[in-house]
Amino acid sequence: MHLIFLGPPGAGKGTQAARLSEELAMQQISTGDLFRSAIRDKTPLGLAAQSYIDQGELVPDDVVIGMVREYLPRVTAPGGYILDGFPRTVEQAERLSSFATIDAVICFDLA
After folding, report:
1. Euclidean distance between the first and final Cα of the chain, in Å?
2. Which one, of 81, 33, 36, 31, lies nearest residue 60 by Cα?
3. Rounded to two decimals, what is the model's pTM?
4. What is the C-alpha to C-alpha distance for residues 9 and 7, in angstroms, rounded to an integer?
5. Cα 50 from Cα 73, distance rounded (Å)
6. What are 24-79's pLDDT values in tens digits?
7. Is the peptide bond before 44 cis (omega within 30 degrees of 0)?
8. 3-class secondary structure for 56-102?
9. Residue 110: band (very low, low, confident or very high) from pLDDT cuts 50, 70, 90
């Protein structure tokens, strides 16, 4: 199963993704974790992300999507994965649909 958890910061996406991923043998994937790992490993996309972060800029969609695209084939969890807070833009969502199949999107709303 491939899920997306969306919602504002502090809505509980990460908390619920962690619980559900443990319960269903899924992998929780956060772009922040992907950034930290790629930067630590000095991958080309990690170095690109670091250059934007160092300048106080948002990491552009191409870099974020590239990281997700590279990472998803390496997911080995038998239950699939949960994308925690990704995609964040319409472009990211459209591009994600070109290389991944998503079974459901769950939106956390604090209203």
Report:
1. 28
2. 31
3. 0.89
4. 7
5. 23
6. 999 999 998 999 999 999 999 999 999 999 999 999 999 999 999 999 999 999 99
7. no
8. CCCCCHHHHHHHHHHHHHHCCCCCCEEEECCCCCHHHHHHHCCCCCC
9. confident
